[in-house]
Amino acid sequence: MTYKLLRHKDFTAEWEKLPSAIRDQFKKKLAKVIEQPHIPKNMLKGDLAGCYKIKLLKAGVRLVYQVKDDQVVILLITVGKRADSIVW
């Protein structure tokens, strides 16, 4: 089953700030995620339990998404560099 991607209201501004090369890398990964979004190793814990991450290790950037199975939707929540002191 293919899921539909939706963006959180704050996601678009963060997405547009990324270099196009980084956005292209995320697009490739998202193309795989829309087919199978529940990837156990990418599940987040704590305040973001129920969400998943996609990481670009070399770039130091990650994208956080939430799966809404009842609506067949993947909600893109946030994207950016993660500092150790920041929750997400």
From TrEMBL:
Gene3D superfamilies: RelE-like. InterPro entries: RelE/ParE_toxin, RelE/ParE_toxin_dom_sf. Keywords: Toxin-antitoxin system. Pfam families: ParE_toxin. It comes from the Bacteria. NCBIfam families: RelE_StbE. Belongs to the RelE toxin family. This is Plasmid stabilization system protein. It comes from Acinetobacter towneri.
